[in-house]
TrEMBL record, chain A:
This is Uncharacterized protein. It comes from the Eukaryota. The lineage of its organism: Eukaryota, Viridiplantae, Streptophyta, Embryophyta, Tracheophyta.
Automatic annotation (TrEMBL), chain B:
It comes from the Eukaryota. This is Uncharacterized protein.
Amino acid sequence: MRVSEPKKGTTLRFKTESCREIIILRFLSLGLELRTTMEGWDPTTKSTLTQIPLLTVKAGPRDGAAWTQRLKEEYKALIAYTSMNKSRDNDWFRISAANPEGTRWTGKCWYVHNLLKYEFDLQFDIPVTYPATAPELELPQLDGKTHKMYRGGKICLTVHFKPLWAKNSPRFGIAHALCLGLAPWLAAEIPILVDSGMIKHKDDAVSTSEA
Amino acid sequence: MEVELKRMLTDLQNLKTSLSDPSHQASIDQIRLCVENLTSLAMAGPTRRTKVKDMSAEVVDSNPYSRLMALQRMGIVDNYERIREFSVAIVGIGGVGSVAAEMLTRCGIGRLLLYDYDTVELANMNRLFFRPEQVGMTKTDAAVQTLSEINPDVVLESFTLNITTVQGFETFIASLKNKSFRQEKEGTGVDLVLSCVDNYEARMVVNQACNELNQTWMESGVSEDAVSGHIQLLIPGETACFACAPPLVVASGVDERTLKRDGVCAASLPTTMGVVAGLLVQNTLKFLLKFGNVSPYLGYNALKDFFPTMAMKPNPQCSNGACLERQKEYMLIKPARDAAAKAKMEEELSTIEIPIHADNEWNISVVDDCDANIVNTQSSDALPEGLVHELPNADVYEQQQPTTEESIENVDDLEDLKRKLEALNAH
């Protein structure tokens, strides 16, 4: 089974009853690959993951100067990841700190399905126990629309991402959470949500309201 | 009902004025008196008992504590009334936390601190405690409403906040430190913290707070498949903290990846929740009132009715800094602890009147049963049957020395980096 980032025009290649199972398979293997040689992966994902700089400072929002150092590393990783996505024509999110302390982040993410772009608000807080625990990524507009989500629009990361984060703490940062947590979630969930009619493309929504 | 009674009174008044015959006046006045009585009854609502000053052991129907005080007469508890001095903080007022709060309230606990940020939903009705008419209320408000009716003697403080955010955490810490309830108490303002949350992140936050405050706490959890659960006692420095090893969960034999958070993904049963809440509060009562053995870890596998137990020592390489500090402190007071244990043992020995055998030619000694049990206190690598780790251990990695290239990168100013990302975000 191949793993790929959400990409323009990508169609869902894995069709089983439970999307969670797919994600388990995909990312359990990733957990192993990360430690070893990452064999059996498509070259794009391999190079994406290896090119996001790993972080070194183990500090959370209550750690003062050390948190500022960590924040710099977070920015460097995000800059590297965003630049890489742009250069590969695979730009899929915008994120920036919503407060000076860098503990709250807001932005957008989008996914292309059947050549249509679906865009969502993205937000999360940096928890006090960061980076021992991962940020809980929220897509508030999808709250209540899918079973793979908790109250408040927090996406379900437990199975495919949390073990990976625990294993790689504190080297993973926000960029890794987006790449390995949010991207596969969008790839698995958005096609289902679109096909089942739970979410509509904004052009369709406008035309129906006009009609 | 009040509206109808009021209308009835007006009608009666109208009837009285319209009637010219004064012979009916008396009976109308009588009816009016009846209606007024009914009105005052309706206004009063259900009767609420008044606060009691002292816990009485008197066995009468009207004494809410008679059966609890009987524990003393039966010799189970030395001094039950001490329970009124204790403060317990319950984090997470869900399926386990709300039931634990009700149990402690009925036991007459001194003070409860309740933390949750969620609201009551109809989807919660398969569990205990909350009622359908409370849908839409915050869980903390709804809990205070019910608990204060059950036992007005309990001091209730509620906090509607998310403890994992920086701001919520500060309020959480400050509320635990607050000693207004019992100023002479040593340490924090609470005797025990009960974690009844439904996710790993919040457990790590409770762990962080309790390690920093040197606060003993108990953790509880029910698996996502609703057929297993556990409770765990955590004494900072003395037992493993929640970050010392990946969290332990009871193997249900169905799916090892349990202990998930609440929400649409999760299944739940009132039975499992009730059992775990019962185990948690039982351990709490034993801890506070000093009776029986306080379990360090107790698992519950509902499918096999299997209850694994174990104890865990702290990890000297724990990733939590506050845990390492508490471990150091605990090691420092070891001589004092040993002396106290020895004194206690000698005291017990002195109560034995005379040795049964004056001489001991063969140096025969009796080994304490406790020593044999210590085998159960094992490193986190070897788990007893039926227990598994929920998450993998963090990989060991070498802290890289900053290379010259990196230190040049470090010159980067935070504001420069922000601008750089914003520039990328702009187009």
